[in-house]
Every structure is written in structure tokens, then in C-alpha cells.
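Progress note, sequence design subtask.
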């Protein structure tokens, strides 16, 4: 289970601008057709066949998540937030080739809140499914935060789907020899070490944030969410810190092995 703090045609860089413009045009048209709110309980993305569930059955998580230890609890998504979530998800989807999503993402479940181990989660994942929260009463749930959640969680789905493509040993060699990861995202959250804000004190050691140190999984997740919602600040960090750059190049190589569209040039052109 991964956490967030609270955890086709090939499209190449030379035509990225046109592709993104075309997809965003489709997005705008689709949203106009939706009207002021999305009335249905399930949205199916025509491009990728991904199902997005707003109103969900009583039990949607793996069975053992409902046991006394994990104790999964959810609150349903507000109807007024449905259209906003579609907008954010379609923007996130537009950054992946169609086939990558078709092959690796079956469904998304949306809630207002999720709680596991007694603490609130922004997102998690299992198999080819992503679970996400959107608590409109909490200002942390900005559009950028929510899109980050998707890329964060989907990176775990892809890493799990292609285990031999990710170079774990090379990743760990980018860390200081004396460093050992923590015991995972849950403990990081419970211990107040789940911040994903950039932390300059950690850059030289190869980490973007405190949460990156929780496990190799969380380290990858934090790097991935920033790759897909790129900012000048992020790329300045990459360009000025050798250990972080090594990790980002390894992560780009992983994505490139999943689909050749994913190159450094592609990611540097991405804008939120």
C-alpha cells in the first residue's frame, strides 16, 4: 500500500506540443458536454477505457484492508467535486501514451476521505487500481496536489507491473553508503516524517523530501510525481545535485523501457 502525505500511437518529443494541445482541446469539449456537474456514478475515459468511480460499493479495497490492523474507512466524494476530478485526471492521463494506461490502469476510485491505520490518506493503490481522496474542505487538496497523487500512485502500479525494468541496485547506489531507508510510508506518517515539500538540506544526500527517505518505493513515487508535474524548481534541483540527477535518469530510463515516448526531453517539456 502506497501513501501520500496526510501517499496507441507513440508520441515523440518533436510533436509533444501538438499532441498536448489536441488532447487539451478534447478535454475542454468534454467538460463543456458534462455541464456544471457530472451526474453519473461512473465515468469511462474513451481514450484509455479507464473507469472512474464516484459512488462505490461498500467494499472496494482488498479484503484484508478491512481487518482491525489497517481498518479501511472512507467517506464518499462530494457530488460537486466530480467534474473537477475529471478535469484533473484527464490532464494527468494526457501525459501518458494511450496504451500505457490501457495496459496498466483499470479503474480509479474517488473518495472525499480515506483512512487506514487510523490516519487520513491522499492516495493508495493495489493491482491496477488507484484510490484517491479529494476533501474540498481541506485547502491542501489543490489541483496540483491531486494530480501529484495520481502520478505518485501510478508510478507504484507501473513499478510493480515491470519489476525487471527498474534498476533497484543502481538506485540504491545513488544514496550515501551509510544511508538506510526507513520502514515505509505508514511509519513516516505516524512519526511526522511524511512531508513531500522540497527539502534543500536533503538534496546533497539524494532526496527531494523527508518522505523520500521512508522507503525506496516512496523515493521513486516522489521523484515520479515531480517528473510528471514538472517545474523549473524541480529541474534546477535535478541539474544541481548529482545524486538526485542519477535517480531521475534511472527513473526516466525505467519509463522509457515501458514506452519509448518517455525521454528526458519529453519530461522537460511537461508543464502542469
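Output:
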Amino acid at each position: 500500500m502506497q501513501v501520500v502525505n496526510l501517499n496507441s500511437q507513440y508520441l515523440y518529443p518533436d510533436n509533444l506540443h501538438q499532441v498536448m494541445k489536441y488532447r487539451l482541446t478534447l478535454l475542454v469539449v468534454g467538460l463543456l458536454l458534462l455541464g456544471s456537474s457530472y451526474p453519473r456514478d461512473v465515468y469511462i475515459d474513451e481514450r484509455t477505457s479507464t473507469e472512474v468511480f464516484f459512488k462505490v460499493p461498500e467494499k472496494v479495497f482488498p479484503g484484508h484492508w478491512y481487518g482491525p490492523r489497517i481498518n479501511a474507512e472512507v467517506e464518499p466524494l462530494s457530488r460537486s467535486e466530480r467534474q473537477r476530478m475529471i478535469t484533473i485526471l484527464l490532464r494527468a492521463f494526457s501525459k501518458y501514451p494511450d496504451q500505457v494506461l490501457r495496459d496498466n490502469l483499470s479503474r480509479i476510485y474517488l473518495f472525499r476521505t480515506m483512512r487506514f491505520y487510523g490516519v487520513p490518506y491522499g492516495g493508495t493503490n493495489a493491482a491496477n487500481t488507484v484510490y484517491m481522496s479529494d476533501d474540498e474542505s481541506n485547502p491542501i487538496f489543490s489541483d496540483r496536489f491531486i494530480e501529484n497523487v495520481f502520478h505518485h500512485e501510478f508510478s507504484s502500479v507501473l513499478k510493480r507491473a515491470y519489476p525487471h525494468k527498474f534498476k533497484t541496485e543502481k538506485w540504491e547506489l545513488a544514496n550515501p553508503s551509510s544511508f538506510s531507508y526507513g520502514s515505509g510510508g505508514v511509519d513516516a506518517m505516524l512519526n511526522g516524517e511524511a512531508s513531500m515539500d522540497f527539502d534543500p538540506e536533503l538534496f546533497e544526500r539524494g532526496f527531494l523530501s523527508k518522505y523520500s527517505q521512508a522507503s525506496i518505493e516512496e523515493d521513486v513515487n516522489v521523484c515520479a510525481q515531480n517528473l510528471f508535474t514538472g517545474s523549473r524548481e524541480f529541474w534546477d534541483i535535478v541539474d544541481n545535485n548529482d545524486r538526485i540527477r542519477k535517480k531521475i535518469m534511472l527513473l526516466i530510463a525505467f519509463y522509457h523501457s515501458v514506452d519509448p515516448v518517455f525521454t528526458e526531453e519529453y519530461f522537460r517539456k511537461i508543464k502542469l
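The chain has one domain: 13-269. Work on this subtask will continue into the next period as scheduled.
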